[in-house]
Design a protein that fits this description.
Layout (H helix, E strand, L loop, with lengths): L3 E5 H4 E5 L8 E8 L1 H6 L9 E3 L3 H6 L7 E4 L1 E2 L8 E3 L8 E2 L3 E6 L7 H7 L3 H10 L1 E2 L3 E2 L2 H6 L1 E5 L1 H40 L19 E4 L4 E4 L3 E4 L4 E3 L14 E3 L15 E2 L7 E4 L4 E4 L8 E3 L4 E4 L2 E6 L5 H8 L2 H12 L10 H4 L3 E4 L1 H40 L30
Parallel strand pairs: 3-8, 17-22
Antiparallel strand pairs: 1-12, 2-9, 3-4, 5-7, 5-9, 6-11, 10-11, 13-14, 15-24, 16-23, 17-18, 19-22, 20-21, 20-23
Length: 439
Amino acid sequence: MNKINKHSFSTLYDIASGISTTKAQAGHGSPFVSFSTVFNNYFLPEVLPDLMDASKSEQETYSVKKGDIFLTRTSETIDDLAMSCVALKDYPCATFSGFTKRLRPKATGIAYHKYLGFYLRGHLFRQSVTNHSIMTLRSSFNEEIFALLNLYLPEYKQQVKIGDFLYSIEQKIKLNNAINAELEKAAKLLYDYWFAQFDFPNAEGKPYRAGGGKMVYNERLKREMPKGWQAVAFNEIVEENKRPLPDGMDKTGLLGLDLSIMPGNTMCLNQRGNAKDFNSNRFRLSKYDLLFGSIRPYLRKAGFSTFDGVANGTIINLRCKDKQDYSFALCTLTGNGLFQYADTRSRGNGTRMPTINAGELMGYTVAYDQKIALAFNNQVSRYWEMIASNINQNFELAEIRDFLIPLLMNGQVTVATGEAAVTEVKTPAVPTASGAKTR
């Protein structure tokens, strides 16, 4: 068992407050570490998603450098206070939010930044923060709390092994997410090319519309579409898939999905909960079910399930009448046109909270051709299997990571030389929409 050493936080790090900004400064200028970026990430992203207009002197005072630790300074609850995020590189010209604190190392060779990225999100440190937090109307992390906190660290070389091993798991999860994003992008690009621009391959393999294919005006769609195509309501392609749970069914161990953990703007639904957390309005959920968030459609929550389990009734569950239409239905369900339609319909239903039901959703009208839908499905159906596999692998990796973190941190488990890396998993090359373009 490795020796664990106690260190005072204040002897290892200097603490600094972030920059005070106005709304006029936001959205342009230099990279910016926001409260949400710190709260939602163990490590700062390669590219910071936010910008803030800051002067040269402010960029120097509120700089962001490799090894810096950022902690959320204020929160509505203690549980969300002092959530950490670590910088793995220098971010030139970047500044950080006044709603966070920056901890900058005073020395090297004592605390390894990748190790700290996981340690500070672990139970031991989180419990220490809770014990020393001040609760008024809001929780607040300040210098007094900082002075009371301690770090319990193994020898530096062991920190490096542990930190690099855990970080390799994190990198594999990120790689899977990046692959999924590219798969979704490729499918949607091809869908737009074939079903919005109507440049699907003609009999000669050339783009239909661009190659002079016959177009006819459709009164129902209020636009032109290829000759021979149909304007169909979505309910001709899909049907509601509402299956109540049997009375008294044991939900122990069942996975669950509700609107609160359903991500927006992606068909890759990479969050899941526990079915026992749903007290009512629960329905069966099967892998590859088509799902759409019925409340506030403008949040753009739609995609497909990657597991069997339970879904809350606020999620509309659909299935294809013909499996060959699956990819067409999924891309239609997660497309801009249907989201805009659902948002408009939900705002006109007279309720305080915009809501759409399955019947209204399936009233959406779309241009359709059975032969092209089949060809599209043959081209991209494997994408959904790859996405589901990557998401499920990520959950397995996260479970392994979370199981190992406390054992590694307290010395019960060690990382031997040569083991501090996750074995590379070969992933098929990400397909692209060959020849696709946008107008």
